Amino acid sequence: MSVQPLQSQPAPSVNALSAPLVESLVADAAALRLGVRRLADGATLVDAGIRVPGGLEAGRRIAEICLGGLGRVSLLSDGAGDWPLGVHVHTAQPVLACLASQYAGWSLAHGEGRGAFHALGSGPGRALARKEPLFAELGYADAAERTCLVLETDREPPPELVARIARDCGVAPGGLTLILTPTRSLAGTVQVVARVLEVALHKAHELGFPLPAVVDGAGAAPLPPPAPDFLTAMGRTNDAILFGGRVQLYVDGDEEAAGELAERLPSSASRDYGRPFAEVFRDYDHDFFRIDPLLFSPAQVLVSVLASGRTHRGGALAPELLAASFGGGA
C-alpha cells in the first residue's frame, strides 16, 4: 500500500536524537554490566547479555535507542495478573519512532551452512541504509556520520558483516555501534517487550490503515521471567505482547475506519491465536514464516478519534495464557 509522507515539515533525525543515548550507554557500561569492545576497523560492539549479565535498566535504555530517541520507555508496577512488573512505551512520533527506527526489519546474514550468522537489525541505522521498501512508503530518509544498530543475537557478528553494515549506512566503521541483545537476556527481554506499540503500528500498516492518521500512541506489556534458552525466551516475549499487551492509538480521520482498526488489530483476530507462541512455532515445524503474520499484535487495543472524542475498543487481556507461557504465578 502506498501512503503519504509522514509530514510536510522536516522530520527529526532519529540518528541525531539517539546519538547521545548511545554515548551515554557506552560511558555507563560498567554500571549497566555491559561489555564494550572496539574492533580493528574502529566499529564498536556493545555486549548486552552474551558474555556479561546486562540487566533491566540496560534493556530499557537500549529500547529508547531503538526508538531513535523519540520515545520514552519505563519499567512500571502495572503488569498483568501474577506478573506486576511491566514495560511502558510512549512516543509523540509513533510512526517515525516505531516503523522508521524500532522495527526489526533489516535482515542481516553472512556465510552459509551451520556457521552462518543471521540477525534482524533495528534502530536508527535502518533509516540510513533504507534497505526496506517501507522507507519509500514512509517518505523518510536520514543522514548522519555516526549511527547505531541493535541486533537480536547471542553471538558477535563476523567482521565482514560489520564492515558491510557500515558501508550500507554510509558511515565509516568508526562511526558504527552495534548493540547485541540475546533474547534470553534481561536486556533483550526488555527491548523486545518494549516493541508492544511498534507491533500495533506495523499491523495497522498491514491492515491498510493510513499511517499519517496516527497522531500519538502509547503501549504497555508485562515483563516475562527470564528464560534459559532462546526458544523459550522468544515464546515468552511474544506472549507478553500477544496476551498481555495494551495499546492506545490517537488518530485523525474516519470514525468507521477507527472502529474497524480496533476490531481487527488485536492478536485475538488471528487464526493462530489461543496458544502460547512456542507451541504455535513448534507445530509449524519452527518455520516462522508459516505463522499468520497478523498474530503479532497487542492483546487489547483502544483507538481514540481526536475529532469526536470517541474511543473504540477491541480484544482483551488473557492472563491464563500468560500463566501458561510464563510458568504460572508466583
From TrEMBL:
Pathway: One-carbon metabolism; formaldehyde degradation; formate from formaldehyde (H(4)MPT route): step 3/5
Localization per Swiss-Prot or TrEMBL: Cytoplasm
Family: Belongs to the MCH family.
One of the GO biological process terms: one-carbon metabolic process
Highest taxon above the source species: Bacteria
Listed name of the protein: Methenyltetrahydromethanopterin cyclohydrolase
Function: Catalyzes the hydrolysis of methenyl-H(4)MPT(+) to 5-formyl-H(4)MPT.
Lineage, uppermost ranks: Bacteria, Pseudomonadati, Pseudomonadota, Gammaproteobacteria, Chromatiales
Species in which this protein is naturally found: Thioalbus denitrificans
Keyword Hydrolase: yes
Keywords linked to the UniProt accession: Cytoplasm, Hydrolase, One-carbon metabolism
EC number: 3.5.4.27
Gene that this sequence comes from: mch
InterPro entries registered for this protein in UniProt: METHMP_CycHdrlase
Gene Ontology CC entries for this record: cytoplasm
One example GO MF annotation: methenyltetrahydromethanopterin cyclohydrolase activity
Reactions the enzyme catalyzes: 5,10-methenyl-5,6,7,8-tetrahydromethanopterin + H2O = N(5)-formyl-5,6,7,8-tetrahydromethanopterin + H(+)
